[in-house]
Amino acid sequence: MFNYVIFDFDGTLADSYEVFISVYNQIAAKKAYRQIESGNLQYLRSLTIPERCKYLNVPMYRIPLIASEFLSLYKTELQQVKLFDGIKELLAGLNDLGCQTAIISSNAEQNITRFLLSNNVESISKIYCKASLFGKDRLIAKFLKKYDLGANQVLYVGDETRDIIACQKVGIKIAWVEWGYDTKETAAAARSDYLVASPGEILNIVKAS
Questions:
Q1: Among 72, 73, 124, 133, which one is most buried in terms of CB atoms within 10 A?
Q2: E strand or H helix at 79, and its extent?
């Protein structure tokens, strides 16, 4: 049985889509990048990160420079971010099974901690963050080594193709959630181990492992 479930944050636990778009568009307006609008939103969900950057006229090399400003603006709109329906029940169910939970995210630890406190989420005790869209596999590997976890003990839950690729690199299973940022078609093409439509399905995966 999986005895550790690691969650991505944005698009997986937290419904931050509107905040993400708002913050990005504030930055885009200042730097003359293409805006995210209702007309191009679905198309963007089907693209890889390099393809999105090209479409939005965002130079890839500037992403690390933008990240600090993005997370600072995100903090000011944190009250607009909500837990997805069913997440509290999922976390309670995992806790009842004796399964530990953690978050590995490219958001800021301070943002995540404040969000969990404001939503009375107490069961997640470990938060690992790196303000980068890349290198999540190294962060996961560091987590596994620190807590002496075998790959077969861990399930990662995420919503983006880069989550799937990161998990494949370190050899752990991933459950991709359809309520997040990327489309189901991109997740299927990347060969996610599980495709889930509701939080309750994650609990069933853990029980069946």
A1: 124
A2: none
